[in-house]
Protein: Glucosamine-6-phosphate deaminase
Organism: Solibacillus faecavium
Amino acid sequence: TNLKWVEATDYDEMSKIAASIFVEQLKENSKTVFGMATGSTPEGFYKELVSIYKEGNISFAQAKSFNLDEYIGINPSNEASYHYYMDHNLFNHIDMKQENIYLPTGNAANIEKAAMDYDAMIEEAGNIDIQLLGIGVNGHIGFNEPGTPFDLGTNVIKLAESTREANKIYFDSINDVPTHAITMGIKTIMKSKKIVLLIAGAAKQEAFDRLRSGEVTEDFPASVLNYHPDVTVIYTGVE
Ligand code: GLP
């Protein structure tokens, strides 16, 4: 496979290596189309990116950003929404223009149409130059759960119970965790020119091992990355 494996000494170093790859990309092309991810894993990455931005040598004013996913039936003002996460971890702190920031809408009247429109907008932007990814304990990328066909574009999915469990810390109770989400499809993700996958912590050991094995199967969504020509996996806390 083409996966490049980079072992970081700790979480901080993983975040710094990832941020420096994104900053280099922006320096090469001020009009970079970024693909962004949420979750606990990239929090340090965003902190690092914001702190580099605050040094004053880079600008996101011409860049664009598309996020991977969003829960269905949640408002952007909800603190557990990925809209809220992105504003607070990144967009409130940098000079990216509001009109260049895209996230799938979790509360659209016609959600199927919103999903198709999302892919069209990514394509119109010239596809994603660099996509950040995390990985679910079950190997999901974005919210593409095990069994998702590799050729699916942005779509609405039913969340796996293990995913709802893993994400309940962001909600008052398990009952408040949405049952569905809208996610960039695997096909959409695979069109990104470059991919950076972050893996941190022992909870991801099994997923890490399975990815490392090189086996490709729709039962383990992240395994599709073996077919992509430019993926860097930065990992820590797994071995
Ligand atoms: C979440 C997100 C993914 C994320 C993954 C891992 O549910 N939809 O984009 O990569 O699951 O999250 P975490 O980094 O919090 O372990």
Notes: The radius of gyration is 17 Å. The chain has one domain: 4-197+211-228. DSSP finds seven helices and ten strands in the chain. The pocket of GLP is lined by residues 37-41, 68-69, 134-136, 142-143, 163, 167 (CB under 6 Å).
